[in-house]
Amino acid sequence: MKLEVLEKDCYYHIYNRGINGTTIFENDTNKLYFLKQLAKYSKDKISIFAYCLMNNHFHLVIRLNSEEKEVTQAFSNLFNSYAKAFNKQVNRTGSLFEKHFKRIKLKDENYLKQLIVYAHLNPKHHFDLDFKSFQFSSYQTYLSDKETKIERNEIINLFGDLENFIFYHNQKNDFLNETYTFE
């Protein structure tokens, strides 16, 4: 599979999972460490618009602020540092993530909005968890007034306002909850 070329000032869905679907986050401490390393290695290189950390995979919605080589190296450093720490903690060796992180270039603002909601609804989709209270997605960050590295104002403006941001998430959540009967 040929990997999407990363371009400065473009938006991307970045995601990966554990090799063979293995767990990459065994506990909250692992997830907090991953977010800390993400902030450390990506500082000024990307803008983060959404994230969700599940037990065996993650989703990031980002914009590149630097050239591809610099961003790719930052992600490599992030994944290597996290894998080494995780492997040491659980007494394992070898690759933790699938070979390359996946990346999809977002073509327009509508796709960007859909992807942000998709990332936030991941807990509901995979584990029937309440996405609104899921600790390891950026959804709650948008509802908070606390300082954040998430590009909150830019995305709230993309949705129109905070009410529309919440409404859009609830509409998509309702769609996931619908059951269809076929006659």
From TrEMBL:
PANTHER family: TRANSPOSASE IS200-LIKE DOMAIN-CONTAINING PROTEIN, TRANSPOSASE, Y1_TNP DOMAIN-CONTAINING. SUPFAM superfamilies: Transposase IS200-like. InterPro entries: Transposase_17, Transposase_17_sf. This is Transposase IS200-like domain-containing protein. Gene3D superfamilies: Transposase IS200-like. Residues 7-122 form the Transposase IS200-like domain. One of its GO terms (biological process) is DNA transposition. GO terms for molecular function: DNA binding; transposase activity. SMART domains: Y1_Tnp. It comes from Flavobacterium hydrophilum. Pfam families: Y1_Tnp (PF01797). Signal peptide: none annotated.
